[in-house]
Target: Alpha-tectorin-like
Amino acid sequence: AGYDTINSVHHFSIPGSFSENATGQFSNFRLSSNVHVPGRWAFRTDHGSRGCTFNNLPVQLGDSFWSDRTCAQKCTCTSAGLQCRNQPCSFSQICQQTSFQFSCQTVQRRTCTISGDPHYYTFDDTVFHFQGTCTYVLSEQCNSGLPYYRVEGKNEHRGSTQVSWTRLVKVHVYNDTIELVKGRRGQAKVNGNFASTPFSLSNGTVQVYESGFSVVVSTDFGLVVSYDTNHYVQISLPYTYQNTTCGLCGNFNNQPQDDFRTRQGQLVSSDVVF
Model:
């Protein structure tokens, strides 16, 4: 409940109840050293009698938290008790543990964009244009102990053999394969079968939902993949994946000049060779 900011040996605590006497085994302070001396004591008052409990631990009235590592359900301590509702982290946040609870923390991230016929904008802001019509690895976690993922894009000709467009985005994560398909807004294919959004996989660690005109795949480790089911793809990663990625979106090391580096470590001069 309080401690001397100059000498923390002198303290007192009030465990369990406000009726506890502060001069027993839970205290060690000198009355003469703290009278009329500003700035010497710091206090914390918890409204324990008006709070809640979660997993047998106290939660202060008005405090909010997420109940588990998926951050799918947000709980708030109210005067009527603990109230919980479905509210996952947003695309710009990641689920992290804080003390005994979990919270959605905003994280710095970079985004790779594929659009049009198609134009590629890597994590490190290299821009190139590539008209192939095969299936390509857009981004993959390479050589790291971080959670594994792979995002593939399949292109097709539309009206002209001179240009190509993204027709399919495939996300491999947590032993599941999620396909975002051209023209199938509000749906995603999971391990070969279409399902209507929103839904979750792997005990809530993967969320699939609509956001605006796009279908989105979001994971608990911060990967966010969106496709407007026409031509526009975005892959977003937190900075924890810096210098651990490979694929057409680059290696995410803040150095655009080396984005055309092959898996064998060779730096090549063009997107075609890459």
